[in-house]
Every structure is written in structure tokens, then in C-alpha cells.
Amino acid sequence: MDIKIFEGVKTPFYYYDKELLERTLDAVEACTAGTKMKVHYAIKANSEPEILRIISSRGFGADCVSGNEIKAAIECGFRPENICYAGVGKTDEEILTGIDADIGCFNIESIEEIDILSTLAAKRGKRVTVALRVNPNIDAHTHEYITTGLKENKFGIDLRVIEDAVRKVKESQNLDLGGLHFHIGSQITISEPFKILCERINDLQAKFRFEGTDFRFFNVGGGLGINYDNPDENPIPDFASYFDTILSCLHLEEGQEVHCELGRAIVAQCGSLISKVVLVKKGLEKNFVIIDAGMSDLIRPALYGAHHKIENISAAGKSADKIYDVVGPICESSDVFGKDELLPETKRGDLIALRSAGAYGVAMASRYNMRDLPGHLIK
Ligand SMILES: *Cc1c(COP(=O)(O)O)cnc(C)c1O
């Protein structure tokens, strides 16, 4: 990382490597061009307008989880017909935002939502395309790498009542059943869960065909993980195996499409949170590097015990032979980025990079402790 470009930029701030983002998008395009796969970028991972514009300019769709995300997606160039909208608790106002914008698909997460959406669509005199989000019950216990397994019933419609849901959608004049939607979790770094998902989809497809229901598309959600330990070894996720797994395992009929909603895999590695060492505190047992970024800027470590690679970029090339705890300034004991980190001798004023922070970084930032929101530099 060339720290000269950071001169004069107020810390903490998110730095996005635009070239890496472009190369990541190139890789996604290379794997999906000419296939039945349509990529929707999951906006909640990072909704910086400049990043949204770079992604929308590739012709990708957008996966939104709120009315404001729908508005941001459209403002930043995503075409409404390429927007899908998921969420367990869409408000009437948010649903109407989607209906009025003529978005491509509502991903319905409960039987109750079917009536609500149908009524609101009727109110606008429109027929809207929906997909039913199925909880495929891929057990998080057998796959601990699925951090947000769907077996918790908040997300999606239980497999056992999916037929009732299909019938209900088909009865509505104002709803058009386009497909089925799934999202089995996040930061999944092996292909097994995606294979199991495809098998579930194939079974469902066969069952519904037998009953006379066809789908135009299946949306497999997001979840492809990245390498947080070694961002420089894997700056671009292995999209080839991911898309290969899905496109080879799914049995698609003529004319059917498959949609995916990648968030983290697209934006995580291009972003780093850059912060400055406020002071190095010598304790009796430990030495603390106290930086000017905290959990209000990057909450993943405090929220899920995540670890972002920590680098002293002012001491690049020097041997990492000192041990420190790297912590933020916020009044919470969980405001810790790393314990017993091996770093070069670190001093006040050094720049520290928290790597792989492009996804769920600034998107989750808050003003806790009345701190300013972090800035950004896209270059
Ligand atoms: C969060 C989310 C995604 C994106 O997940 P990643 O792990 O960032 O790829 C996709 N689809 C839905 C419905 C989501 O809620």
C-alpha cells in the first residue's frame, strides 16, 4: 500500500483500491458472461455511491433489503427491473417504494407477507413479480462455517409450508410467481453448502413441475466468503469454482435463469480502514496500540469476533517482532481489533491498516460516543 496517497487525509477513513474493485468485477464478468447466471450486488455490504456506480456500470443488478437501498440503487444507476428486494419486515412505505419504482422482484419471506404485498400492489393497480424465499434448512450445526444459517426461522418460508405459499401467490391477481429465493449464510469458503443448496433446489423444482408449477428463475442468494487472514494471497475470491458449482449442480430447464446476490465477495478485499496510532500504552503485562479508529467505524470484531488483518503500513518491510493488543478509543471493552498481534515496533503517528474492510465496514458504522463517521478515499 503506497501511503503517499494518504497524505493529508483525515483518519480514520476507508480506502478503496478502485483498480482491485474493477479487477474483481472483471473476474465475475468473465465467469458469468454467456451463462444463465445473473449477478445482483448486495447493496448492504457497501453502499458508497461511487462504489455503487462502478458496479452498476457493469450492468449488474442490485439486491436490496430496505426502501432506502432501493432508492440509492436507482440513483446510482441500477436499472429497476434488475433490482430484487428481500427483508423479513418490509414496511408498507418500503413496499410501495418498490412497487412505484417497478423493481424486478420482491423476495417474500413469510405467508403473511403475501397478502400484504398483494393488497398494496392492487392499490396501485399493478402486478408485481415475486420470488418465495425458502428456508432450505441447511443445518448450521453440521456446517459451522455458515454463520447465519437459515434454520433460525426468522428468514424465509419453512420448506414444509412452501406449497401453501405457492398456492397463495398463484391465487393473487396482483402477484406473478417468478421464482424461488434462497440465502443460506455468509462467509462460506467451501463449496459443500452451495452443492447441498443446489440439490434442494433440484428437488423442489422436480416436485413443483410434477404439480404443474414452473419457475422462471432460482435465486441462490449470496454468501461466498473471502480470505481475511491473507488478503494479499487471495485478493480476488475464487469466483470460478463458485459459479462452476452452481451452474453445474443446478438442473436448469430451457429458458430458466439463475440469480445470485454477492456482497462481501465483491467489495471486501478492495477496502481497508486506515487509522493513526494515537499512542502506545505500556501496561505491566501488555502493550496496547491505541488507534483512532474504533468499533463505531468497524464493528465486525466487536459484533461477531471477526478478525481483520492488521498492518503497520508506516513500518512496511520492517520485521514484525513486537507483540501488541490493538484497540480503539471507545468506552467499551469489546472495542478491540486484535489481541497479541505481531507487529513491527509501533509508535505514535504510525498508520495502521485494517484489511478486507470493504464489506460490512462503513455500512455498519455509527456515531457512538458522538464520533464523526469515517471518511473515504477511492483511488
Ligand atoms: C446479506 C445478503 C446477501 C449478501 O451476502 P454476502 O455474504 O455479503 O454475499 C445476499 N442476499 C441476501 C438476501 C442478504 O440478506
The ordered H/E elements are EHEHEHEHEHEEHEHEHEHEEHEEEEE
Say which molecules are bound, naming each kind only once: pyridoxal-5'-phosphate
- Tell me the β content: 15-25%
Envelope shape: elongated
Radius of gyration: 22 Å
- The helix-and-strand class reads alpha/beta
Q: Averaged pLDDT, please? A: 95
Helix count from the secondary structure assignment: 10
For the sheet with most strands, the description reads: 8 strands, mixed
Total strands: the figure is 17
How far apart lie the N and C ends?
A: 12 Å
Helix content: 25-40%
Low-confidence runs (pLDDT<50, min 5 residues)?
Answer: none
Describe the structure in your own words.
The chain has helices at residues 18-32, 49-56, 67-75, 92-100, 111-123, 162-171, 192-210, 239-249, 264-267, 300-304; strands spanning 13-16, 37-42, 61-64, 83-85, 105-108, 128-135, 157-158, 175-181, 217-219, 257-262, 271-282, 287-291, 310-312, 322-327, 336-343, 351-354, 375-378. The strands form two sheets. Strands 1, 11, 12, 13, 14, 15, 16 and 17 form an eight-stranded mixed sheet that branches. Strands 2-3-4-5-6-8-9-10 form an eight-stranded parallel barrel. By secondary structure, it is of the alpha/beta class. The N and C termini lie close together (12 Å). Bound molecules: pyridoxal-5'-phosphate. Pyridoxal-5'-phosphate binds at residues 42, 44-45, 63, 65, 86, 183, 186, 221-224, 261-265, 359.
